[in-house]
Amino acid sequence: MIIENDKSLQHHNSFGIKVSAKYFAEITSLEDFRILIDDPKIKKENKIILGGGSNILFTKDFDGLVIKNSLTGIELIKEDAYNTWVRAASGEIWHPFVLFCVERKLAGIENLSLIPGQVGAAPMQNIGAYGMEVKDTCHTVEAIHLATGESMIFNNEDCEFGYRESIFKHRYKDELLITAVTFKLNKIFKPKINYGDIRLTLEEMRVDEITMKAVSDAVIKIRSSKLPDPKEIGNAGSFFKNPVISKKKFNALIKKYPLMPNFPQQNGMVKVPAGWLIEQCGWKGKVVGQTGVHKAQALVLVNYGGATGNEIYALALKIQESVLEKFGIEIVPEVNVV
Ligand code: EPU
């Protein structure tokens, strides 16, 4: 393992922002990691773990050590009549991992096909799409504490999962390296196809049977049509989270905006799509310098090439302001702004 100095991060963040790190090291084993955190030269440095770099916006050079997670390995650890437990190292790339499970007919993450990033980020963000979230199948998360070197294991409840939330984004923010995640997957496949365009897409695909592979293919088709490929246009997927508002606020808004899509939550609150709110404020497809709001999904901010992180962040602030002004709703970034 080499510790590089003044390393460009442009190819390590899906926005393609040109920033650099004071130190950069890629770990491929836990031993690498232990050597790294014990290194006296960098013991006192700020540290961040970088997975796929697909949920981060760098606004400045990173004055510290960037640890690039390249831990790999997938194993089927146990099974019973209904479930198989699959343990994946945190540096495995998410989408191929989903395909690995789909090929083995292990259900529970097929609707999460094509989400960018690595396995380790999945519980951190509680990634979700098309009616499925990682919290539904995440069994355990293994981690090492950056400062103390202590090994830790979190079961599903310990993770304190919420909508795009977990304990790893709050109490343990920037404190842990997630090393592996074990998923409890189902041998019995119950398709979840009521969300969004999945059913329609399956019909268009004229599949004879709704298999796990067909659902995965449908999700891939929908995502590819709506979300820009970061290899072509820099972006980090949804920039904001969908706001969850009170019933009272919702009742007042729906009178004024009867077409506002809405998703009532179990706790009586109502989730409103930020993409719709942003579109109503006239931002969809707008280009501002080298930045912009994607033409097919207003929740996605893009770098058309050469934008700085601050330019994208400035656009995000303007969008936040206009949504607040028009709807009285505060939208907050899902992306980690550093
Ligand atoms: N909508 C608009 N205009 C837009 C975008 C959306 O009116 O520009 C409306 C749609 O018509 C629909 C509703 O908003 O009625 C929801 O849109 P969509 O199904 O595209 O989902 P989303 O709520 O915008 C969330 C996730 C996505 C995930 C999709 C599909 C968040 C922050 N985003 O987006 O996740 O792929 O659902 O399940 O929850 C990500 O997190 O990076 C991400 C891409």
Give structural notes.
This protein has helices spanning about 30-40, 95-105, 120-125, 200-205, 210-225, 245-255, 275-280, 310-325, and strands at about 5-10, 20-25, 45-50, 55, 60-70, 75-80, 85-90, 130, 130-135, 140-145, 150-155, 175-185, 235-240, 245, 265, 270, 285-290, 290-295, 300-305, 335. The chain has about 350 residues and is of the alpha+beta class. It folds into three domains: about 5-70, Uridine Diphospho-n-acetylenolpyruvylglucosamine Reductase, domain 2; about 75-185, 2-Layer Sandwich (Uridine Diphospho-n-acetylenolpyruvylglucosamine Reductase, domain 3); about 235-335, UDP-N-acetylenolpyruvoylglucosamine reductase, C-terminal domain (Uridine Diphospho-n-acetylenolpyruvylglucosamine Reductase, domain 1). The strands form six sheets. The chain has a five-stranded antiparallel sheet, with no helix packed on it. β10 and β11 (about 150-155) form a beta hairpin. α4 crosses α5. It is globular. The model has no long low-confidence stretch (mean pLDDT about 95). Uridine-diphosphate-2(N-acetylglucosaminyl) butyric acid binds near residues 241, 261, 273, 279 and 297.
